[in-house]
Design goal:
121 residues
């Protein structure tokens, strides 16, 4: 239950960060689209940035999980400190949730009207 709540909080946080980043770059995205960028290119650009953020959070999380696992290994009952199932499933679920959280603002960015974006600020 706590893991599910943590996952929801992580998705909300990533979605908020990406939505803020897209809102700050509305003018840039509008200029790109006015110059001929396809919506798919804009979508890939924002998802690529989300994937870089995802790689960083998985690397940091893995390092912290290994360190924490070694510290609390005496408290675990019939589970190894480096359980391969947990170290496989958790990053996959986090990756799927993060990419979904990045996809929503990226999809909104592809619908930016270039004229409206250029008139902002």
């Amino acid at each position: 239950m706590f893991g599910g709540i943590a996952l929801v909080l992580a998705v909300v946080g990533v979605n908020g960060v990406k939505a803020y980043a897209v809102a700050r770059r509305t003018r840039e995205i509008g200029i790109r689209m006015a110059l001929g960028a396809q919506p798919g290119n804009v979508l890939r650009m924002i998802l690529r940035e989300g994937a870089v953020m995802l790689a960083a959070e998985i690397a940091i999380g893995f390092a912290l999980a290994v360190a924490t696992g070694r510290i609390v290994s005496g408290l675990l009952y019939q589970v190894g400190a480096l359980d391969p199932i947990a170290f496989t499933i958790a990053p996959l679920v986090l990756a799927a949730a993060t990419l979904l959280a990045c996809w929503l603002p990226a999809r909104r960015a592809t619908r930016v009207d270039p004229l409206t974006a250029l008139r902002t600020e």
